[in-house]
Amino acid sequence: QITTLINHKDKPKRSDKTLQAIQRVGQAVNVAVGRFVTVGEAIANENHELKKEMSVACIEARRAGETIAQLTDVASLDHPESDSHITIFTDKTGVVKAARLLLSSVTKVLVLADRIVIKQIITSRNKVLATMEQLEKVSSFQEFVQIFSQFGNEMVEFAHLTGDRQNDLKDEKKKARMAASRAVLEKCTMMLLTASKTCLRHPDCESARINKDGVFHRMRLALEQVIEIVTDSRPNGENEMAPVSIYSGIKEFKNKVEGLRENLYFLSKENLSTMLEVILEHTEDFTDSAYTSHEHREHILELSKQAKMELEQLVSVWMQAQNHKTKDLMEDLEVAILKTCQCMNELKREVHSAATSLAADLLKYHTDHMVLKALKITGVEGNLEAVAEYTCKLSEQKEQLVEMCRLLRHVSGTEPLEITCIHAEDTFQVTGPQIISAAETLALHPSSKIAKENLEVFCEAWESQLSDMSMLLREINDVFEGRRGEKRVYLSLPRPGKHNANLKALKPVKLDTEEQAKIAKLGLELHLLTSDVDSETEKWEDQENEIVQRGQGMSSMAYSMYLFTRGEGLLKTTQDLFHQAEIFATEGTKLASALHAFSDQVHDDDKPLLLLEAEKLISMCKQLQITAKASVQGKSATFTKVDACILKTRNVMTLLCQLLPLCCKLLRKNKAGNGCLKPAPPWREDRIRTGTNAHTPERRAETFGIKSLENHVTNMTFLESK
């Protein structure tokens, strides 16, 4: 909008339409700045150490926004009395100065807010670490239950903060690392619970202690990595040395080779030879692997030899071309470049085939989880000899899967997928020995229910990682075949509707970039409406009022739908969106019921208007539900349905923006009489039923699987009381 103002053409004749458009843009900038600054000032009030800096930046931004609004107030230019009025037409430099001040002050506010966010995450991590230390030292079950309840709450807070941060990260590599660390914390939280309970029940059991120590150690490493990503630093100032994959090596090598067409002197032959040597060293991971087939090994060795020969030929022609740049030599150079690149493409294809065929075979072979089942059975029987036999088999399986991850990393094709492969390798490396120690504990205490539950948790983590590997393999193949770009949905994040039996048969669809662009304007309108609804709910004195809480819940869901239009947030597929729209409509209907109950308490003069608005809301919600439930087939029809759902959600939110101030006004008006509402139904229970959370909205980004954690804590409390 600022660019539009500064770049507008100074025409001698200005139509009313042009003047009105300029004024609208100026006002829109000022309103947007006002909203932005309001948030900045709220942050400043909560963080005293940066309050002064933040307040100054907010004042500057507000002043700049007001200046832009004044300079674009051009609607009255045609009137003689406004000749002395300074506008964008008489003082364009004023707009430029105001725009510069605005952008610099807004940037300053963002940087200060970012520092606060980083501090919040570090503080939250420190609280989690302190509570973990207490958990490690507890000796009684009752004390453990109390401290673990606190630990659960702190992990929820940490999940929200890091989820927000992950959404904000622009670097896909950092996003993938953050997703991996958060996945470790999610799974380890449950492992920590059962491993600690087992240790408390069997304090003299060495294998139980080893099992528990392994979980604590892994959680600390994951917490440390989150802080490294957030602060963009490494311990002791060391640089991160990521291993180079064959794919990235070949890509860089080909770029250098093809660059010889433009410049014969920009690199040395030694440089090019070294790059090829590094690539061929990495192919030894395939040729030396016991799991690579004889056929693949022979092909890789043959292509490696051919690559060396092609490079020798290329260097020979290249050196000649540097001395004598004739037409024939340049043609020979082109042929040598093409042959070298073709050879590297064939090598790339061969290692991809070797890695993915091995992965497909291993995942198919281990899909029945026979070793895990056998460990559970022999553990319950107390058969130490059989447990030892099956732990050896699990160790073999672990080595196979670790090798598979290493080879897949070489052919993953993108940095985020590379990081996912490294995360998978670490998971198998760590979880394997933990399953073994859990199985040994169960074999030593075969009647222990908690030891059995502990083994189940670790086995589930193993099975979950195997399931994720199947999805990862599909993504790697998609990238290789050009069906996917750099951006991806990370496997480790929880997905809504994942465990809903009704959704299993439906094929999930995502919006492509073009569709996101088409729906962006509608999504932005929805975003602005959620801000309006939030500001209206904040005006209510009674935040526990059912109308407020329903409104907050609906705003939260609408915000998650806005994030979907940007390809972000918790809703990943169109099916997720339609499911969210249904819940949103249901919540709207419940709000209408609350409005009917409220109408009984208002004066007769005001009642018809309130009831009319409530009926409108019911009608709109019914229409949205019908649209969300309608069955469609084909890409075009699906997009039309998405568009309709977002549009109808926007209409409901527009009505909500009118309803909330009306109700607030009527409540204040009736407070002198019988104006307080009947007690609202328990909102917490309602939130669980509808799948929303008004106080921790979905805009707080993806969180851990906290619900199951809360259930565990509840069950523990119940057992303790028994």
Automatic annotation (TrEMBL):
Keywords: Cytoplasm. It is found in: Cytoplasm. One of its GO terms (biological process) is cell adhesion. GO terms for molecular function: actin filament binding. GO terms for cellular component: cytoplasm. Belongs to the vinculin/alpha-catenin family. This is Alpha-catulin. It comes from Pygoscelis adeliae.
